[in-house]
Amino acid sequence: MGRRGRGLPWALVLLALRGVAGAAPSFVLLLADDLGFGDLGSYGHPSSATPNLDRMASRGLRFTDFYSSSPVCSPSRAALLTGRFQMRSGVYPGVFNPDSRGGLPLSEVTIAEVLKAAGYATAMVGKWHLGLGINGSFLPIHQGFDHFLGVPYSHDQHTHYPQFASQDYAGQSRRGPFGDALLEFDGSVGQLLQALEENGLANTTLVFFTSDNGPSTMRMARGGSSGLLKCGKGTTYEGGMREPAVAYWPGHIPPGVTHELASTLDILPTLTTLAGAALPKVALDGYDLSPVLFGSRKSPRQTMFFYPPSPDPVHGPFAVRLGKYKAHYFTQGSSHSDMTPDQACHGLTPLTPHLPPLLFDLESDPAENYDLLQSGAGPEVLQALKEIKLQKVLFEQRMEFGESQIRKGRDPALQPCCVPNCSPKPSCCRCS
């Protein structure tokens, strides 16, 4: 893409193309990095310049209640690619480092592998962050992608910090370096949409956009915004896991806004259905969102389970959402959500159990300010809490934690290096 495509390293772009006329659609999946619920103009930010994403939102289906599976990078990407909670594939606790021995297990079946088996050509551009391995054994080309152009990890080892923008975008926004990077990302989205138009693919391609987790607020204005939602990256409050999301397919998905529950976990089952492909023969945690996109617009997803960056079977999900109600059984701050006025978000705020849980009505109180159980809960609220407890128990009985891939340790020799065979790493790896 040349100089004007430099906004993509803080995104992950999945492309799956079908070349047969009249066949199943092609897909472009855009995953921004650390972009918050309140960062786009179409989600209410007063000074963001995101004309291409806003055009997608106005001409496509914009989600208001769309969730990532995790409030940090590696596990959220693993879940998106597999349709399975990250604990099943062992992508916990935390994220992969440049010298991590582990990665997304090759035994996991990714979206790319499902679509490739159905005759699609596949490619991935941007940040991977699911392991490198010996001789690149965990890279996308070993997970079903025909092509990979990108970086194995965050470039801080870009809305991901530190942000940058090329000369065409630097100083062009009203939000400083973060806004410039976001403007360039939006420009890259515009280039992709233009390429689809120029190649006659616009009406046969579903483009889906979302973010991997909430914004990092530890650098204040150099991070993103969760809008009216509580906290951000690293937490199981709404700001950590509720994301902007848009499904765009001209002539097929009617424009509008949906308040139905949906998640990155649902992307694999949905694309599999649209492609006429076969679902993996494993336990899946996602649902086919076709009814939301094309039909009754009622989502098959009625619950969402919120796991922290370091989950374990003893604590289980920190929070559970059922319909409009969300119950917090544990809360904990995160350093990624420092520097906000709300101390509950901060990294020094310890793990806190709640019995009874904190309970919020997210339709009337999306900021999670008013605990319903502290204000004389009526019969409807108590019945909702009872059902949430039941769903939590049933879900934990089905959830199996795989062997942790991140606890496999670290090996400095695995760290990517632009000075091959130098020593000592990583100090010798600085590029000229």
Q: Can you tell me about this structure?
A:
The protein is α/β, with parallel strands linked by helices. The protein has one domain: 3-Layer(aba) Sandwich (Alkaline Phosphatase, subunit A). It has helices at 51-59, 73-82, 86-89, 111-117, 176-198, 238-241, 267-275, 290-294, 379-398, and strands at residues 11-17, 26-32, 61-67, 121-127, 147-151, 205-211, 242-248, 256-258, 262-263, 303-306, 319-322, 325-331, 352-361. The two termini are 23 Å apart. The relative contact order is 0.18. The model is unreliable at 1-9 (pLDDT under 50).
The secondary structure category is alpha/beta
Let me know the number of strands. 13
Strand content: 15-25%
CATH architecture: 3-Layer(aba) Sandwich
- Give the terminus-to-terminus CA distance: 23 Å
Give the % helix. 10-25%
| Oligomerization state | single chain
Tally the helices: what do you get?
9
Unreliable stretches:
1-9
CATH-defined topology = Alkaline Phosphatase, subunit A
Q: What is the level 1 CATH name? A: Alpha Beta
In round numbers, the mean pLDDT is 90
What is the CATH superfamily classification? Alkaline Phosphatase, subunit A
Rg over CA atoms: 21 Å
Our count of domains comes out at: 1
Major sheet characteristics: 9 strands, mixed
Order of helices and strands: EEHEHHHEEHEHEEEHHEEEEH
The rough form would be described as globular
